[in-house]
Design the sequence.
């Protein structure tokens, strides 16, 4: 992947956000809709499914999303001052001191 001024993410960040966008969020939304519309499963012909795997999948995805959120909150406090990394996290750019 070519690094440009428009690409603000390092490879680990890019992989994390890709996983979030193509795995965690779709699983959370899909399982949430299945959970919400449980009483209407017979309309689409999935009444033989069990609610337990849907609930477990939704719970695991929710915990992954919460862990992602807490990791971000924690990482804002790891700089020289408690909020020094907040600007870099919001803008995607970090000010580096010259050696």
Sequence:
């Amino acid at each position: 992947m070519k690094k440009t001024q428009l690409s603000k993410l390092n490879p680990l960040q890019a992989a994390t956000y890709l996983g979030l966008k193509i795995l965690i969020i779709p699983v959370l939304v899909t399982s949430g809709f299945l959970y919400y519309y449980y009483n209407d499963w017979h309309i689409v012909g999935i009444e033989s499914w069990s609610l337990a795997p849907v609930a477990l999948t939704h719970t695991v995805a929710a915990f992954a999303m919460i862990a992602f959120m807490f990791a971000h909150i924690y990482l804002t406090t790891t700089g020289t001052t408690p909020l020094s990394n907040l600007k870099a996290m919001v803008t995607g750019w970090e000010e580096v001191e010259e050696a």
